TrEMBL record:
Species this protein is from: Geobacillus genomosp. 3
Pfam families: ATPgrasp_YheCD
SUPFAM superfamilies xref list: Glutathione synthetase ATP-binding domain-like (SSF56059)
Protein name in UniProt: YheC/YheD family protein
Domain of life: Bacteria
Entry-linked InterPro entries: YheC/D
Length: 355
């Protein structure tokens, strides 16, 4: 029987998702376990984790060898656990005897640079600069009324700041719309940039007009996964709508998830045609290009913004997408998503391209 291991930093993270996948694993001849990279014994290379018991549909404590197939669902912060786990994960991904369902993406800045170099996709990437000095922000603000600063290692909308011109001052708000600072002097802007870069590298983009008539931030989330032949397929397309007055439409930040078709029906016909054409172009082009640039992935959470004029923008490409958007799907469609990692694992076990 093939062994597939879910790797997470927190023992409880993704437990529901892991369980749904594990319930279906037996019919594919796969056993499922989950563990933290911090629980690998460096002497024996055995793991203390949990193994799914098909008879009881429960997880049991166990010690086992590192599984030959691994599903990386680790999310890193700036804490000690993350700092310890990263080099362990790098070591696992370099081992020739282990196969990961996906090898992940580099930081957002490298992804932006790569997409900007593509002859087709570059048209959908907002102008993006690396925030290294206050002058980088001032130069963009000379052309724009407001800019958004995104951490290059961020996720779930955390660490985002919006800087707006207000008369002769700059207002700095966090992703929830709360004002964090009012900058009146160059020295204060220097301090802000230094403070941001001390925590993480940042990229700057113009603040795009991506809100509903009710001033709610919104974006489109497209979940793409590979099927049992290694071909990219679209699993779900949804709209995420955040709270009025905030800047992020992330589900973890409290955004609602709504069917894409309902949102699309509200667009005037000419705009609908333009938007759909852009989305299809991106979905058709981006996954295979990302694979060729950064190595094979199993899934992508693609975040798209749609401006008032119908322009579609690539906001983020996530190699470890969340699962809450699947709640809008039927039970049969959800079942396909839970079975996807198992089918792709069998593809890799049969000698499919994994690196």
């Amino acid at each position: 029987m093939i062994s597939l291991g879910f790797v997470t930093l927190d023992e409880q993270q993704d437990r529901g998702y892991c369980t749904e996948v594990a319930k279906r694993a037996g019919r594919y001849g796969i056993s499922v376990c989950r563990f933290s990279p911090l629980n690998i014994d460096p002497q024996t290379e055995h793991v203390h984790g949990f193994v799914f018991q098909e008879e009881t549909n429960e997880w049991a404590d166990a010690v086992f060898p590192i599984p030959p197939f691994l599903y990386d669902r680790c999310f890193y912060g700036h804490d000690d656990r993350s700092k310890k786990a990263k080099p362990i994960m790098r070591w696992l991904k370099q081992r020739p005897d282990l196969v990961f369902l996906g090898y992940g993406l580099p930081n957002k800045w490298e992804v932006y640079e790569s997409l900007s170099a593509h002859p087709l996709l570059s048209a959908y990437v907002p102008p993006t600069v690396r925030l290294e000095r206050a002058d980088d922000m001032l130069e963009l603000l000379r052309r724009e009324q407001a800019v958004i600063a995104k951490p290059v290692h961020g996720s779930a909308g955390r660490g985002i700041y919006v800087i707006q011109k207000k008369g002769k001052t700059l207002s700095v708000q966090d992703g929830s719309g709360k004002e964090r600072a009012v900058i009146t002097r160059r020295r204060e802007l220097d301090q802000l940039v230094t403070s941001l870069n001390r925590r993480d590298g940042y990229a700057l983009q113009p603040l795009l007009s991506l809100s509903t008539p009710a001033n709610e931030p919104f974006d489109l989330r497209v979940l793409l996964q590979k099927d049992e032949t290694g071909r990219w397929i679209e699993q779900v397309r949804a709209v995420r709508i955040g709270h009025a007055g905030t800047w992020v439409a992330n589900v973890r930040a409290g955004a609602d998830i709504r069917p894409f078709a309902d949102w699309l029906d509200c667009l005037p016909s000419p705009k609908r045609i333009v938007v759909l054409d852009s989305i299809e172009t991106i979905i058709r082009t981006l996954p295979t290009y990302i694979d060729s640039e950064f190595g094979p992935l199993f899934e992508i959470g693609l975040d798209l913004g749609v401006a008032d004029n119908g322009a579609v923008w690539i906001l983020d490409v996530n190699s470890k997408p969340g699962r809450k958007v699947v709640n809008i799907l039927s039970a049969e469609q959800q079942n396909g998503i839970y079975e996807a990692p198992l089918r792709y694992c069998l593809f890799l076990a049969g000698g499919g391209n994994s690196r």
